[in-house]
Amino acid sequence: MYGIIDFFKRNYFVLLFAALEFLSFYLVVKNNYYHQAGFFNSANSVVGSVDKTYSGITSYFNLTEINKQLAEENAKMHNMLSHLNDSSYRRKLKSSSPYGQKYDYIMAEVIDNTTNRTNNYLTLNAGKKQGINIGMGVIAPSGVVGIIVNVSDNYSVVMSLLNKNCQISAMLKKDGTFGTMRWTGDDFRYATLSQIPMSEKLGAGDSIVTSGYSSLFPKGIPVGKVEYYKTIPEQYFYSVIVRLSTNFKNLQYVYVVGDIMKEEKNQLEQGTYKEQQ
Length: 277
What we know:
It is elongated, with a radius of gyration of 32 Å. A hairpin with a 5-residue loop joins β1 and β2 (119-124). The chain is built from 6 helices and 12 strands. It has one domain (64-276): Thrombin, subunit H, CATH 2.40.10.340. The chain has helices at 2-10, 12-30, 33-61, 63-81, 87-90, 262-276, and strands spanning 103-113, 119-124, 137-140, 143-151, 156-163, 167-172, 178-182, 190-197, 207-210, 222-231, 237-244, 253-259. The strands form 2 sheets. The chain has a 6-stranded antiparallel beta barrel with strand order 1-2-5-4-3-12. A 6-stranded antiparallel β-barrel has the order 6-7-8-11-10-9. By secondary structure, it is an alpha+beta fold.
């Protein structure tokens, strides 16, 4: 108690000055509408600024969940719209294929990824229980990623397009001329498209997409754009350097593509090959 009294004695003038300042401020604001408006506007600005900052911080920490939700919604949209790509083919599909669609899309998160090796792989947090099997293609919103090569109940391993053992069928979007796309092991940003005839007119920036000739990927999935091309000595083909559309350095969410009619197609082709032998 004595300490409190002593505090007021030692700080009497400072406390008195503060009290008078507060009283003066109160009287000015109370009796002047202009000052009242200025005070409350300033207070609202401060509160608004604090709210905006808080909202920005919470939004930043919610980005991961938002990205996941967007990826799930994109997978649903792929499943809903895939049947619209080819109406003539849709009429011939089995009735067990929902809406006549040819592909299923399963969203998964990338939990491990390499880009600096000769043969690179990715690991996904989805496996057999989520409907993923060996031999399925994997794409990102920006384009082709790779092929499923191993699965467990809840995980799967993807042979990345940045793998010298990975090759896919790709084509020039403008005219459908197709060839084989492979990575040379040099730069994660580029791959090589081969078997493109020299009779074709190429130009830097030409779009390269999947051909749809295999069961791995639907037709028209982006692969990249022509960076430059060169002739192969004593051959009639170009070697086309393609800048990949997928940035393998920042993959977060991908879609595993399942061809609903793959088994029927494979059985028909294998049966035909046996008959011709």
